[in-house]
């Protein structure tokens, strides 16, 4: 991505900080990054930690922007977009929204005009630069702008593009909410390990390292997860006993119901937030 482009972040919360930090680690010049936030403490901390310019006023932050990243809560997106619309219409930057549940048609309505809009769905591991982000590009987004958006989100992990925005609800259920599913599993494993008599620290470290190791194996292997599971499940062994118990308890059906419930809620929230 051209490092001469000016990137403005609207909102200075955790995800914005993560993206800015990722860009800086990729040697993007701090002089070409700024952020706006109404919280003076947030601005002060961000400026001190990352050496970027900060603003109290969103319009001031967007004055010379080539790219505007909307990193604000979905509940305030409509008001922020409507207040920014006249300024953004003048220099027509690329707009990247990382707000969950806000569809591009809603953004287009609030911003006015036919601006280039990319919708992104990063997940919380982006905070430690191991995120997974799905992106969807509106009709006005050029190939260069797609590359720019991908470069920004790739600074905190894996990125991939969706052809159909409707798939964003499934992404929300799978990777957006997904870290919580793994946290729950690790929470349960650690708790059960302690009940089996292991010291708390031992149960915690064994659980976390096992989760990390399994994920690393899956990422680096040419085999799919089903085959990897089969290869560590010896007939008549301890792993087989545990897996059979999970399957007897219909864990597959339970996960199906859980992810579909999340997807349905994502669709509901998109409709609700779009009426703001």
Outline of this structure?
The protein is α/β, with parallel strands linked by helices. 56% of the residues lie in helices and 13% in strands.
Mean pLDDT: 94
Q: What share of the residues does DSSP label as strand, in percent? A: 5-15%
**What do we call the CATH homologous superfamily of the largest domain?**
NAD(P)-binding Rossmann-like Domain
Question: Helix share of residues?
Answer: 55-70%
State the end-to-end distance. Answer: 34 Å
Domain module tally:
2
What's the Cα radius of gyration? 21 Å
Q: Indicate the CATH topology of the largest domain.
A: Rossmann fold
Question: Biggest β-sheet: count, sense, barrel?
Answer: 8 strands, mixed
Q: Which structural class do you get from the secondary structure elements? A: alpha/beta
Name the CATH architecture of the largest domain.
Answer: 3-Layer(aba) Sandwich
How many distinct helices? 12
Shape: elongated
Q: Which stretches are poorly predicted, pLDDT < 50 over at least 5 residues?
A: none
Q: State the total count of DSSP E strands.
A: 8
CATH class of the largest domain: Alpha Beta
User: How would you write the strand order of the largest sheet?
Assistant: 3-2-1-4-5-6-7-8
């Amino acid at each position: 991505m051209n490092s001469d482009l000016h990137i403005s972040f609207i909102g200075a919360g955790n995800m914005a900080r993560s993206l800015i930090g990722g860009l800086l680690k990729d040697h993007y010049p701090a002089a070409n990054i700024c952020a706006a936030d109404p919280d003076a403490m947030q601005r002060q901390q961000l400026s001190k930690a990352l050496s970027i310019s900060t603003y109290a006023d969103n319009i001031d932050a967007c004055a010379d922007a080539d790219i505007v990243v909307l990193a604000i809560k979905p509940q305030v997106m409509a008001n922020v977009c409507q207040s920014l619309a006249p300024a953004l219409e003048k220099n027509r930057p690329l707009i990247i929204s990382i707000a969950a549940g806000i569809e591009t048609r809603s953004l287009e309505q609030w911003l006015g005009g036919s601006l280039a809009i990319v919708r992104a769905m990063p997940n919380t591991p982006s905070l430690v630069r191991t995120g997974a982000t799905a992106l969807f590009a509106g009709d006005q987004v050029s190939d260069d702008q797609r590359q720019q958006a991908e470069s920004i989100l790739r600074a905190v992990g894996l990125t991939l593009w969706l052809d159909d925005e409707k798939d964003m609800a499934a992404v929300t259920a799978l990777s957006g909410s997904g870290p919580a599913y793994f946290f729950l599993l690790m929470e349960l494993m650690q708790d059960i390990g302690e009940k089996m008599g292991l010291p708390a620290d031992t149960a915690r470290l064994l659980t976390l390292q096992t989760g990390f190791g399994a994920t690393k194996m899956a990422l680096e292997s040419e085999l799919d997860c089903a085959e990897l599971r089969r290869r560590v499940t010896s007939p008549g062994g301890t792993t087989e006993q545990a897996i059979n118990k999970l399957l007897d308890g219909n864990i597959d059906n339970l996960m199906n119901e859980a992810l579909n419930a999340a997807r349905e809620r994502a669709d509901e929230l998109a409709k609700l937030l779009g009426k703001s």
